[in-house]
Specification:
By secondary structure, the protein is α+β, with helices and mostly antiparallel strands. The protein has two domains: 1-50, no CATH class; 54-184. The protein has three helices and eight strands, in the order αβββαβββββα. A hairpin with a 4-residue loop joins strand 7 and strand 8.
């Protein structure tokens, strides 16, 4: 007996017959459901997970003006939006934290009230587009925010997240403050 095109040993089993309308409709429905699922997944990821990334730089900075011998020092918090999307920055936060403080729930939190009188400084709240930067300047003196030795300094955004400066930058600024003001009391 010779094999028929639809027998078990034939490789042409699925290619020699015509598809029915019902089978074509099922294939199209599966493909459209897969595309809709991918679209839904991307929209959820884009709107919920993929939020703007803010890079914070922190330190003691000197402002140099041509022809002026007075060179004021400021504590600078710089925030740069690395995207995607626009973000609203609202408040400067500080905290004193370490792994043992976290373990025993002894972390300390505070907010720093921005100096709205300084014409050189940016203002909060601030809306930053992708690639835009905000520089906040605080007076560098004996009773500035570095006096308390905070371990973390950052800025909160409209998504409820706080973006912290690198701890190395914070420690370096505190060392600079201690060198300049600790023994001058």
């Amino acid at each position: 007996m010779e094999p028929t095109p639809y027998s078990r040993g034939s490789s042409k089993r699925y290619f020699n017959r015509d598809m029915t309308t019902a089978e074509i409709a099922i294939i199209i429905s599966v493909i459209s459901a897969a595309i809709a699922g991918l679209s839904l997944g991307w929209n959820i990821y884009r709107d919920v997970v993929l939020k703007a990334k803010i890079k914070i730089d922190f330190g003691v900075r000197v402002i140099i003006q041509h022809g002026n011998q007075h060179r004021p020092e400021f504590v600078n918090i710089a925030a740069t939006n690395h995207g995607p999307g626009i973000v609203n920055l609202s408040m400067v936060h500080v905290k004193n934290s370490s792994w043992w403080r976290w373990l025993f729930r002894k972390e300390e939190y505070a907010v720093v009230i921005h100096d709205y009188q300084n014409p050189l400084s940016g203002q909060l709240p601030c809306k930053l587009g992708v690639g835009e930067k905000l520089d906040l300047l605080f007076h560098y003196k004996a009773d500035c925010m570095l006096k308390n030795g905070w371990s973390h300094i950052g800025i909160s955004d409209s998504f409820g997240r706080t973006h912290w400066a690198k701890s190395k930058q914070v420690k370096e600024a505190i060392r600079q403050w201690e060198k300049d003001f600790r023994n001058k009391k």
